[in-house]
Amino acid sequence: MFAKRYENRLNLQKKSGLYRDPPEFDGREDRFLLLGGKKVLNFASNDYLGLSTTEIAGTQVAENFRKFGSSSSSSRLVSGHYSVINRAEEAYASYFGYEAAVFFPSGYQANLGILSTLFEKGDTIVFDKHIHASSVKGMTLSGAAFYGYNHNSMDHLAKRLESCGHPQVAVLTESLFSMDGDLLNVAGLGRLKEKYGFIAVVDEAHSFGALGPRGKGIAREVADVALGTFGKAFALFGAFVLLPRLFKDYLFNFCSPFIYTTTLPEAHAASALDLLDIVEKSEDRRSHLADMSRLMRRRLREEGFKVSGDAHILALEIGDENKAVRVSRKLLENGIYALPARYPTVPLKQAIIRIGMTALHREEDIRLFVDTVRRICDELESRT
């Protein structure tokens, strides 16, 4: 009975162009993925500064794991509360301008933990409708009432806030949206925060390290709580939450996803410290990333494509889910990998090719991508 239900749903996914079956890569090298003995140009990576394959990052991380070992072997509240983890959290809090920080094994777990713990029945969360799936799950588990506002619309957010009618309100949004690629209206959110006095929780996973002075993101002036991930610009794994010290103490005592899990190893914290220093000094990489992102956006628009994105995440509009899959497959056949983002990651019938730019990309890579996707789309159009 269960197997039949699963089979039916998978068949429906295939018919609707929503089936997920990622290619199996053999490894990676610089800006390329290795597939069947061939190099494939990678436009699906979140390694925005291009640090994950560098020798300096790899050497320091390897040395930390040799020195500290591979596992903490305990939850944080049992015997995993190591001094190096505390030092790393303090360093991240200081660097980004917050009172405290907490490390989590993943961004998904971090969003799940903070939202399900900090908010409860009787509270209200007003959220941007394009927030990450982990944030949706976290606020659902919280028990709080929640209401969505139209993506990045400060006018609609103001209407939601006006209708809330009580003080226990939080606003949940992102600073750089992971699929749309657009930036939060920080000034607009700030004006509303001053008027309504809500708590702001901002997911800065895609901006920390890559945007703002020294990679500090863009939302500090409005965010009471901010989430970052090590698995993107910081070239590691896991996540960090920046927050008031009182909130950290509260998480230590009441956050189930934090309390009942093995903590990240000491080697991770030591590596996080090393990588923070590297990220701080990577202004040249941030500058090159911005230049390449602007060039890709301009070249695609010159070719007549509809493309959105204010920074290093670009969304190439396709629409039909099956077409998005075909375009992605054709790109891969031509030595380029780019993700076909489909429902429920993006709204139904609004499929995109998500282009992740990195500091490793070059002008010739952009030229190859634009020329190839133009030819593929022309060929598909001629067959319809």
TrEMBL record:
UniProt keyword annotation of Transferase present: yes
One Pfam family matching this protein: Aminotran_1_2
Residue span(s) of domain Aminotransferase class I/classII large: 38-371
GO terms, molecular function: 8-amino-7-oxononanoate synthase activity; pyridoxal phosphate binding; transaminase activity
Pathway noted in the entry: Cofactor biosynthesis; biotin biosynthesis
EC number: 2.3.1.47
Domain of life: Bacteria
Catalysed conversion reaction: 6-carboxyhexanoyl-[ACP] + L-alanine + H(+) = (8S)-8-amino-7-oxononanoate + holo-[ACP] + CO2
Assembly description: Homodimer.
Keywords: Aminotransferase, Biotin biosynthesis, Pyridoxal phosphate, Transferase
Species name: Desulfoglaeba alkanexedens ALDC
Keyword Transferase: yes
Protein name: 8-amino-7-oxononanoate synthase
UniProt similarity note: Belongs to the class-II pyridoxal-phosphate-dependent aminotransferase family. BioF subfamily.
InterPro entries with a match to the protein in the record: Aminotrans_II_pyridoxalP_BS (IPR001917), Aminotransferase_I/II_large (IPR004839), AON_synthase_class-II (IPR050087), PyrdxlP-dep_Trfase (IPR015424), PyrdxlP-dep_Trfase_major (IPR015421), PyrdxlP-dep_Trfase_small (IPR015422)
Cofactor: pyridoxal 5'-phosphate
Gene3D superfamilies, per database record: Aspartate Aminotransferase, domain 1, Type I PLP-dependent aspartate aminotransferase-like (Major domain)
BP GO annotations: biotin biosynthetic process
